[in-house]
Every structure is written in C-alpha cells, then in structure tokens.
Amino acid sequence: MSYLEILLIIISSAGLLHGVLFAFYLCFFKKKKTITNFLLGLILVFMAFRVGKSVMKNFGDDLEPIFIFAGLALLLLIGPLFCWYMLGMTRPNFKLTKKYLLELIPFGLIFFSSFFLTKDWFDANSREAIFLFASVLIFIYFHFAFYIFLSWKIVKTVKKNYKNEELTKSQKAIFDWLQLIIIGLVIIWASYVLNILDDKVPYIIGPIVYSIVIYFLSYKAFKLKTTEIDGEAFKANDSILLFKEISKLVVEDKLYLESDLSLSKLGGLIGQSTQKTSSIINQFAKRNFNDFINYYRIQEAKKALSDFESQKLTISSVAFDTGFSSLSSFNSAFKKFEGITPSMYRKLNN
C-alpha cells in the first residue's frame, strides 16, 4: 500500500470517527435530551457506516455483496431520518408516530434482501447481477435525492410562514443550520453520483468529501448552538407581545431619556424578571439592553446636534438631556454607533 493510499485512508476515516463521536455525544452525553439530537446522532452513525463501506470497497479486495448492498441500503434509512429531523427542528412538540415507520419499508426490503445475495450467485449470474445492482443503485440515489428535496421544501414552507415576522435568534440559527446541512448532503450525494456517471471521478472522493463536510457542519452546529434548540423555538408564545410592549415604553414613550433606566426597572414595568426581559431584548432587538437603550439615545442626540437652534447647547448638555449619566459614556456610545465623536458630528451637520 502506497503512502498516498495510507493518507487517503486516514483522511476519509477521520470524518467517520468524528461523526460517530459527535453522534455519541448527542445521544448519550448531551445534557439536553431531545428527539432532534437523537435523530441527528442516528444520521451520523448510519452515514458513517455507509461511507465506511465506501472506504472498505475502495481499499479492500472482493468485498462481499452483503456489505455493498447493506451499505447502500442505509441511504434509504438516512433519507427519512433526515426528513424527520427537519420536522423536529421546525415544528414544536414534534413526535414520531407509527405512520412514519411506513417510510422505512424500502430500507427494510433491500437491507434484508442483501443477506440472501452471495458472491457465488453474482459470479454465476453476472448479467442479472449487473441489472439488479444498477436498478437498486438508481432507486437508492433517487430515493435519497427525493428526501433531500422534501426536507428543503419543509424548510422553505416554514420560512415562508415567517416571512413577515421578525425572527428570534434561535429561529434564525435554525434556518441557517438547516440550510447548511441540506447543502452538505447535496454535496455528498453529488460526489457519489459523479463517480457513478464518470469513472474518472475516484470512488474515494465520496468519503473525503464527507469528512470535510462533517467537520464543517460540526463546527457550525456548535457555533450556532443548534444542539441546544429545536422546533420549540417556533412555539407560539407571548415573547413578541412583550417585546412590542417594551418597544412602546422605550421608543414611543421615550423611556430611554431617563438616566436611571435599568433592566430591572424595565422588567418591573412589564411584569417580567430581569433575565426574561434581557432575553426578549436580545432575541428581537438583536442587541443587549445597554445597546438597545443607547441606540435610541444616540438618535435623539443626533437630532439635537444637527438642530441649528440647539447650537448653544454644550455636548455635555446634549448627553445629559438624552439620558446619559456621564459625558464619557455618551462619547463612547456615540462613537460606537456613528463611528465619529459628537463634536465632529455637529461640525459635519451644521
């Protein structure tokens, strides 16, 4: 075995090991036990077996037909699991019912049929074997493509329903994550199909592509914190109404002009805890409490600084009139939002 082959084995196998370890973490070590994490774990495990078969076939000799067909059959299992994962990530209170098990019939038929296919039968019936293998291969890859398309439709439909609504951080993270994972599966699917259509594309490309995709998706999963959220993020609640109430108090009633305004005071006005109030502002305003309040203070200050009749007001007066408790905090906030100092802004706008 050459050094190149050893390197290819290491690269392609690294993704398999990583996927399995990630799956075990989701299923057994993750504190938050959810059906979506369990489904994702199963997808990673079965995908590892599927890609592992490819590595064995590429570097092994005379792989038994049972391993080839069983490995291919796993795609018939991964497709429905992936679709269920999409449903679990976009629907609150998602539960797997018995009707979903009907989608596993194609997998069951081909997987158990593989136990009756021997190498001797393939050697004795070469023409029939080629026809059988080609038919099963075409069906499996079209089946997998169908479920990828179905998953994309699910995400597209849910996203359309929220077109006119402001998304929370969790909802946005879910949409970004699901889009990435769909693209990842399409790339993996395409790498295998290209090998079937063109012999010039090496078979080992599939496992290598899988390794690259699984490492990237694992990184994005932790960055977006998608293992901490699921379809409950789309559950109807009073958070939007509470944010509208916060916006009315802060923006319309100009509560931001009060220098002693605090998170606890604002929470008391809407009858919510400090933590709940902070969470709502972070989700819907996409800013923390201080930046949320200071943004409107700065907008008010900009009006005063560009108003000709307010030229006699000092920078300090404008700062205190707009709710800031000190000149330094005003200057810092102004530069953060506008990129220049208040005095420079006044010069440029008068």
From TrEMBL:
Signal sequence bounds: none
Keyword tags: DNA-binding, Membrane, Transcription, Transcription regulation, Transmembrane, Transmembrane helix
Transmembrane feature ranges: 6-28, 35-51, 66-88, 100-117, 129-152, 173-194, 200-217
Name of the protein this chain belongs to: Helix-turn-helix domain-containing protein
Origin species: Jejuia spongiicola
Residue ranges constituting the HTH araC/xylS-type domain according to the UniProt record: 245-348
Alphabetical list of PANTHER family matching this protein: ARAC-FAMILY TRANSCRIPTIONAL REGULATOR (PTHR43280:SF29)
Database matches in InterPro entries: Homeodomain-like_sf, HTH_AraC, HTH_AraC-typ_CS, Tscrpt_reg_AraC-type_HTH
Highest rank taxon of the organism: Bacteria
